[in-house]
Specification:
By secondary structure, the protein is of the alpha/beta class. It has 19 helices and 10 strands. The two termini are about 40 Å apart.
Length: about 475
């Protein structure tokens, strides 16, 4: 039956694994886009649209696919009309993960068991809005009630992390830790690059004159993040090209970006600088025993009209068919030679890259760290039933699934934590099926340990928060 206690758990083994091992494990949400300000201020939401649809480009894409006016999506329609438009959309969305997530959130967080449709949408609106008035629905309490132990936000290198500081002093029920997201450090061809470097210099009280002083300033910011519990970096690349590591050439390009016309910097120079800087950042991360996250293959703002009228991160991004195996192999090879390759999680957006990248990661595993290099949790357009299963199977067939650090939300929403339940049920389903097919022994002690580790224990050990 739909979302009953045993949904997706189609074998007795799967049911035992989920209910006895996975269901009550805490959550380590090691990658998300929650706003630390909203967490600190313990934000409350006036209505279901604000907490459910605000900033959620997953839902916005679906609503556009249903032919709805942009006014009802990101425009100036009332919150109630936007909600009704989403209700009209979701009831048509069989097979889409949003259908499951929507009803999981209603059931687990709001206690609403009705199936959302156009007819009962007004009733659910009233029930949900009434529930939102309770203190249990504030930002912090939503985190606590979802059994979240650690939240890792995504933060610019020059952020002062003021809200992280305050949360560290005041919030003892869970941790909110910063993640170093240095995308803007790579943008040597961007008109705002010089301004950003000036801001970095001001933030570090350090004169940035060349590539070496640039790296020193960055290292100061890494120290700052580390002092507030930061243990991860996160990078996003649409494409990546490997070049011979050349610090002198990087310095020439950097000075050119600071002192000459941005238009004079060629595509080759941008690619050279990116690869060189990535090598040096990996070395800085390794010195701190950080984990690097690489999100690969998202194409941004493909719908230029949507971007110009609504903005970025509104549902106009897609998936590239770029290849990353060669540049990452060269990157890892360079770092491995000097024993400066840190723990790394790679998230390819294009599932065609799953197996090739898994084989590349396997070349550089380290005897000192379980699962040092990992194929990350199914991301964005792979964050689906089949996408999660494909990623899990790829990890199992190409490495050791028992060492996988598990699920993350990658979300801006405080309602996203039931996605961990969805993931855990899929893992239990998969292992149960393998046992039923005779591919693994019916050893509940060993199976239970594997599920507990993937759900929670591996992440706790791997990241060492």
């Amino acid at each position: 039956m739909f979302l009953d206690d045993d949904y997706l758990l189609d074998t007795e083994i799967a049911r035992k694994l989920y209910h006895n091992y996975a269901e009550f494990q805490p959550i380590i949400d090691y990658h998300c886009h929650l706003d630390p300000k909203e967490i600190y201020e313990d934000k409350k939401f006036d209505n279901l649209t604000q907490i459910w649809l605000g900033g959620d480009h997953y839902k916005w894409r679906l609503m556009r696919a249903n032919g709805l006016s942009e006014t009802l999506i990101t425009g100036d329609a009332s919150d109630y009309d936007k909600y009704l438009a989403y209700a009209k959309t979701i009831c048509q969305s069989i097979g889409n993960p949003l259908y499951i997530w929507t009803h999981l959130e209603l059931k687990r967080i709001f206690g609403i068991t009705e199936i959302l449709n156009e007819e009962n949408a007004p009733l659910i609106w009233e029930k949900a809005n009434k529930k939102l008035q309770e203190q249990s629905m504030s930002a912090r309490n939503l985190i606590v009630n979802s059994k979240v132990e650690t939240v890792c936000t995504t933060d610019d290198p020059i952020s002062d992390l003021g809200y992280h500081k305050r949360l560290k002093k005041e919030e003892k029920r869970f941790k909110v830790l910063p993640t170093f997201r240095p995308d803007r450090l790579f943008q040597v061809g961007d008109p705002e690059f010089r301004t950003y470097i000036d801001q970095l210099a001001q933030k570090t009280s350090y004169s940035i004159k060349d590539y070496q002083t640039f790296l020193v300033a960055i290292d100061k910011r890494i120290d700052y993040f580390d002092g507030l519990g930061g243990r991860l970096s996160d990078h996003s690349f649409t494409s990546l090209v490997d070049y011979p590591y050349d610090e002198k050439e990087a310095n020439v390009i950097f000075k050119k970006a600071l002192h000459e016309s941005i238009d004079d910097i060629t595509l080759k120079e941008k690619e050279q600088f990116t690869f060189c800087l990535l090598v040096d950042l990996f070395k800085l991360y390794d010195a701190k025993n950080w984990t690097v996250q690489l999100h690969l293959g998202a194409t941004r703002n493909n719908n230029t009209q949507l971007f110009e009228t609504v903005g970025a991160d509104v549902g106009g991004d897609g998936m590239s068919d770029n290849q990353f195996v060669k540049p990452l192999t060269e990157l890892f090879k360079l770092l491995n030679q000097t024993k400066q390759l840190p723990k790394t999680i790679v998230y390819p957006l294009n599932p065609n890259n799953f197996t090739p990248l898994m084989t590349a990661l396997g070349c550089f595993q380290d005897s000192g760290t379980k699962g040092k290099l990992q194929l990350g949790s199914a991301w964005w357009y792979n964050d689906t039933y089949n996408g999660m299963r494909d990623q899990l199977i790829t990890v199992a067939e190409g490495g050791i699934l028992s060492n996988f650090v598990g699920m993350l939300t990658d979300s801006r929403s405080f309602l996203s934590y039931p996605r961990h339940e969805y993931f855990r049920r899929i893992v239990c389903q998969l292992l149960g099926q393998w046992v039923a097919e005779g591919q693994f022994p019916d050893d509940m002690e060993q199976l239970g340990d594997i599920i507990s580790r993937i759900s929670y224990k591996n992440a706790k050990e791997y990241f060492q928060f």
